[in-house]
Amino acid sequence: MKTLLTQLAKFGVVGVIATVIDFGVMNLLHYGLQLDILIANTAGFVISLIFNYLASMKFVFEHREGMSRRREFVIFVVLSVVGLLLNDGIVVALNKGLALEANLAKIAATALVMMYNFITRKIFLDGTQA
């Protein structure tokens, strides 16, 4: 149980940093450069994804024996693309559909997608047993 709690804590730290990157890029592009929320949100998500992969596979999850790094990255990206679709859908629905401010919509989306990310990465990428 301790390893799962330690892993969750590390996932949280990596996630907070990735979230700061994600929000920073989104706000810079949306509010600073006046880009559409969908473009700004997607760009923030993609940039934070690159950081998240590198940090997650170094500090949070252990490499699964018998899985190539290439396959690991492909799985990470596929899971993340699903996360991006969920994230974008939630942000757009809340921001454009319910007129919720962009950052509040992003907070809600981030919380939901965070749960999805940990569970799916634990199942498909982690080489440790829970």
Describe the structure.
With 130 residues, this protein is mainly α. Helix content is 82%, strand content 0%. It is built from four helices and no strands. The protein has helices spanning 2-32, 37-60, 69-97, 102-124. Helix 1 runs antiparallel to helix 2 (37-60) and helix 1 (2-32) packs antiparallel against helix 4. The protein starts with a helix and ends in a 6-residue tail after the last helix.
Choose one word for the global shape.
Answer: elongated
Cα radius of gyration in angstroms: 15 Å
Please give the largest β-sheet: none
Classification by helices and strands = mainly alpha
Q: Percent range for helical residues?
A: over 70%
Q: Please state the average pLDDT score.
A: 90
Helix-strand pattern: HHHH
First CA to last CA: what distance?
7 Å
Strand tally, please? Answer: 0
Uncertain residue ranges: none
What is the number of helical segments per DSSP (H or I, 4+ residues)? 4
Q: Beta fraction of the residues?
A: under 5%
Short description:
The protein is mainly alpha-helical and 130 residues long.
